[in-house]
Design a protein that fits this description.
about 160 residues; mainly alpha; 2 domains; about 0% strand
Length: about 160
């Protein structure tokens, strides 16, 4: 009797763990990547796909639009990857985290205002503090972000 359970793919798991698993490997139509991960070129490896796409344009002189499409990217994305690659090398091809890097609305001024409110009225809820920020600064901050900001050690003025 043959075991029919599929063996886990260690490369797939590694790509997933490192955040380099291509979310759209089926979009890569370039002939190098058509052996479905059995050879050297693997459409599931996002960094490899990006690198080969840039190499194809820069070294082979392939047209940008057609190459971007064959590798599953837009022309603009190819240009942006090229800039990051020139500036950062291979690390520039790693997926970039999206969104703000930190609480950009909770500036020192806003946090100081929250502390003043908290000292004047210690029973104010995060929801009430949120409304005060809207009224005073015209910004909306999630109540949990307010709680985290007030839980951090206070900066000296």
């Amino acid at each position: 009797m043959k075991n029919t359970t599929a063996q886990p793919d260690p490369k797939l798991e590694a790509l997933r763990q490192h955040g380099t698993l291509n979310p759209r490997p089926q979009s890569v139509t370039d002939p190098l990547f058509q052996d479905q991960g059995q050879g050297f070129f693997d459409a599931r490896d996002l960094v490899q796909v990006k690198y080969e796409m840039l190499r194809r344009v820069r070294v082979d002189g392939a047209p940008v639009q057609a190459t971007a499409m064959a590798f599953g990217f837009s022309r603009m994305a190819l240009y942006q990857m090229g800039q990051r690659f020139r500036a950062e090398g291979l690390a520039g091809l790693l997926p970039q985290p999206r969104g703000p890097r930190q609480g950009h609305k909770l500036t020192d001024e806003v946090v100081a205002f929250l502390w003043q409110l908290r000292e004047a009225e210690p029973d104010l809820s995060p929801l009430a503090l949120q409304q005060r920020l809207v009224d005073h600064f015209g910004i909306t901050v999630h109540p949990r972000s307010i709680q985290r900001a007030l839980a951090r050690p206070r900066k000296k003025p």
